[in-house]
């Protein structure tokens, strides 16, 4: 040890700071875990994947919410989106500088504690196995058979690259940590000192790249400070690099320029896209550096982004399942330990260990040790630092007492002592390619038309907040205003959608000459004034209408708005007719018009079946429940006779009571079909978007659930038609 210190002083000229930047390499251990250990690890990781909680990064969740609110489905340049003035920024928004009143004050909002807890099947299993163990220090020993009995929700995120730190303790495996999103991340800093480590890290990266040829994995290059950058220093690992504040030495063709990156939201996930390469980009930070400590928002954003695609924390913390206890037993999955026994010392116990006399301290410790049945060795942890104590050594006990002075609560964990630490790293590669949301990336030529209309321009945008139950009555009350003349002008187009942000409201867009806007607003004021006074209408706003040019680029925004207008008129006519006569239910009208829309774009029954089924399946990740399909099958049997009756009507009015509006509805769809331009995926997404908006106008509540149900019920009806057609075909004699 003394010789190593002399060498260290020599190569660093005695600098303590420089010594922190030295990496010591020792010859590798001769022991290599065998195949059985590998299989047990895989089994334990599979179990942890089932029982570990899923979580989203709060900063990314907020970014998605803000992006949708401000940009409404658009694809924006990354630099614009992250800009706190031109866009929405990311985390820690920039505040007012030189604020003399607040600059030295630490005033934080008061947090409201949430003491609610959802009891799950896993809670019950853990408690049951715990209580059945009658040993002096109980152990929760789970089996894969136990876990298979639980109805687990399908894990929402896959494992995209897991690092496992484990020890072999006698005939058991102790998993000390498991998780991550980038398999070679922990190897990064060591790739500069060992060629074999570098090759191993590069092999892991190539595996992922070859598994996902449609994705670019780009290494983030960013300078922080000399000390931290020693941890960040690494060899070229991935084929592409994304320079931020540090240059890349890869060929220019394998460098992703920050100005080439665009960001959008698809399936409630942030998608980063390279226009030059026409591929999704997933940043990689192959380093153990905690990027959340960095002050550059764009770096934190890019480093956070991959976490939304992967399960990154594989652990079981009993304190989260049973908070407030003073003891938590060890948890094992067969022969693999996934959580060590834990003891919580309270303020009173800690105070008893702070007596001025050492013998009194020792006596108090021995009493606590016996009372709580403390393990022969235990650890005290703070962050990533851990101290091991031997309670049989008085000096250890006294040091422990000094370490916990002034603390209100202390957490101790059992330590499985070994003379020789048999510690290893394992790296698990993903078994399947990533399933990523596919963004709609229209060409610039398709994004025709003006995007934004402020109040006083050709489009007037109103938000009318009212309870959901009165929304249809409100629409019918406003209906006459949409048909009347305002001076020499009329409302040439109008459409509405139902929305909830933050409260339920109707979003109404009116196309009218700017000269008539004042008269329109006066008419709306006169019509709604009583409802506002009676609190039927809670709020009334005028807003900027921002067209979703990207979402409707396949046919163009103008022809889409024409369909929205006719769709709104058709639904309004149905509501008016149904109020008088109560002809059919909302869901039958929705199914009937859904079939009418699809039939305009394809008359082929097989294509209609395929579209209805795939559209239904797109909703499944959004909703939980093992019996969705069973419930929908039962619902179809209940409604089958009504659906068959309605579909036999061949009503040109589409059940709305007005043939003229029904014909206009079909004609507007025909106009869209003639304008459609794009690949099959873009066209299908466009068709689902306009159907979504149409069904939204029909359903007052739970429109997403009802839309999913409509697709499935239509699928069942079409399959029934196919079977009947096949049965009715003449047979060869």
TrEMBL record:
Residues annotated as domain Thiopeptide-type bacteriocin biosynthesis: 459-716
Q: Where is the signal peptide?
A: none
Coiled coil ranges: none
Membrane-spanning ranges: none
Q: State the superkingdom.
A: Bacteria
Which Pfam families does the entry mention?
Lant_dehydr_C (PF14028), Lant_dehydr_N (PF04738)
Residues of the Lantibiotic dehydratase N-terminal domain: 35-390
Q: Would you tell me the protein name for this molecule?
A: Lantibiotic dehydratase
Q: Which organism is it from?
A: Mucilaginibacter galii
